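Protein in question kept underneath.
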Amino acid sequence: MIRFLTCLCILLFAINTAAKTVQVSFDAADGIRVYGDIYRSADGTDAPVILLFHQAGGDARGEYTQIASRLMANGYNVLAIDQRAGGDAFGGENRTMAGLDGQKYGYCDAYPDLEAALLYVREKGLSGPLAIWGSSYSAALVFQLGVKNSEEVSAVLGFSPASGPPLADCSLLPYLPQLDVPTLALRPQSEFEIETVQAQMKDFEANGIQTYVANPGVHGSSMLNAERVGASTEAAWTAVLEFLAAALRAK
């Protein structure tokens, strides 16, 4: 009986989640069709909004299905998109890339997709305070997005922000002194063996940006996925949810 009730609860949760999730698409400024999924909170259109952007080689569903569902359950409206720079690294399909007929784009080229996502949720009437959330290369891009859209963005989260030659034309460094909203940069402890990571974290701290080190943890937003970490991720989740509540719930 206990096993039956547990399975029933899981099934009902899955049905409820699916009922509040819908695939969407919209055009970036340069005409690229961008695909994603909206997870609608039961709290309505004025609930806080979170935009989720995946890492290199990834896609929205592969990286964010579990994360987005938990955020939605905590009262947030969520949009997770497939950027034009991604892939099937998490076992899913990048729907935006599937419509590009093999045309390749670099990490910096994906920035218009992020701006289009921000415009889209506002056009659809999701009016609550807004947070932008990036993973790896997109974690570098959200700093630019936050500065250029400071009237709309209330919080920034960067999970393992990338740097290096592929991001030379869209480095996050020029934007750090210009950020004037709550910002959280997160890294797994294992990445601190990299000298550039150590330097970047010092840059964050010098600019008053809050940091968090997940131990154990893995690269990018997957540090919140217990299956990928191989251990509990509740400490990292607590840090993220407390940050979001302080940045968005007080608005």
